[in-house]
Amino acid sequence: MRFLGISILAASFALVSAQNKTLTGKFDCLAAGAYTLCQNQWGISAGVGSQNSTLLSASGNDISWRTDWTWANGPNSVKTYANVLHNTAKGIQLGNIKTAPTSWDWTYLSESQGIRADVSYDIWTGVPQSGDPATSASSYEIMIWLSGLGGIQPVGSQILSGVQIAGHSWNLWKGPNANWQVLSFVSANGEIRDFNADLKEFFDYLVKNQGVASTQFLQAIQTGTEPFVGSASLLINNFNVSVS
Ligand SMILES: *[C@@H]1O[C@H](CO)[C@@H](O)[C@H](O)[C@H]1NC(C)=O
Ligand SMILES: *[C@@H]1O[C@H](CO)[C@@H](O)[C@H](O)[C@H]1NC(C)=O
Ligand SMILES: *[C@@H]1O[C@H](CO)[C@@H](O)[C@H](O)[C@H]1NC(C)=O
User: Fold this and answer.
1) CA 196 – ligand 3 centroid, Å
2) Which of 45, 50, 191, 233 is the most exposed place for a label (fewest CB within 10 A)?
């Protein structure tokens, strides 16, 4: 009885404390419902500042979180990729995906003058069924930029403009990074703060028009922000994605 009482107490405490929990460390991560929220401050040796990410709520397939950051120096260097990664939306070949609906409603609660940052999906595919992002298992990194402020650019060079996918117009950038290819769709008409799409439309486009093999496995879907310099408070009111 005593053990039971203690474990129930511990379980309810964990549930409450996970809400609004703030991550401050360089590579801190937090289990957050269907997702994992991570600080991923991989590039901070190029700058001076700090970043904190706060889980606001996680329920079913929905997540809400906030990242506060301030970075100076290294204006052309990404400092971090504060992000959420879906724990199970992966492990399926692109050609076998029937639907991949996603919704992302976000805003800047505050942003400094001259902010340089993107708000983006980072989607990873490869030959093996599973593989961590940015590893030897990665073949493609597919980015979707819903915002890119301050004149920042994706990896590589722009190869197309005005590509129509999921009701929006995109400029497509392409280039190599380490052992994988980066394909970045950058919104051609400014910020998209309320994004609703089927990611299958992007996958189908890449298979049909950009030589991506339909046998590539989806290995990870992440969404977050890459700050370069400035300071901001980015609020994700709600994000979700599912793949079947
Ligand atoms: C978490 O933060 C939100 C928004 O700031 C607030 O409305 C909510 O009450 C907080 N929840 C907890 C458990 O502190
Ligand atoms: C992050 O948290 C630390 C420790 O609480 C604080 O000193 C720092 O100012 C915070 N940074 C931002 C950008 O909010
Ligand atoms: C995602 O969130 C939107 C907006 O709240 C909701 O309409 C939609 O049903 C959700 N979709 C999934 C796949 O969870």
Assistant:
1) 9
2) 45
Which ligand is closest in space to the CA of residue 17?
Answer: 1
Count Cβ atoms below 10 Å from residue 55 Cβ, excluding itself. 22
Cα of 118 vs centre of ligand 2, distance in Å, is 21
Q: What is the pTM of this model?
A: 0.91
Distance 208 CA to ligand 2 centre (A): 45
Decide if 111 is catalytic.
no
Q: What is the pLDDT of residue 20?
A: 82
**Nearest ligand 3 atom, CA 101:** 13
Averaged pLDDT in 10-residue chunks for the chain of 244 residues? 38 49 96 97 97 97 98 97 98 98 98 97 98 97 98 97 98 98 98 98 98 98 98 98 98
Output the residue whose Cα is nearest ligand 1's atom 14.
20
3-class secondary structure per residue, 92-114: CEHHHCCCCEEEEEEEEEEECCC
Instruction: For residue 46, give both structure tokens.
Output: 């190029």
Q: Tell me the CATH number of domain 15-241, given options 3.90.226.10, 1.10.287.3510, 2.60.40.420, 2.60.120.180.
A: 2.60.120.180
Q: Which amino acid is at 227?
A: P
Clarify whether 201 is annotated catalytic: no
Is the Cβ atom of 237 under 6 angstroms away from ligand 3? no
Q: Which residues have a Cβ under 8 Å from the Cβ of 17 and sit 6 or more positions away?
A: none
Residue listed under structure tokens 């049909």: 208
For the chain, the structural domain boundaries read: 15-241
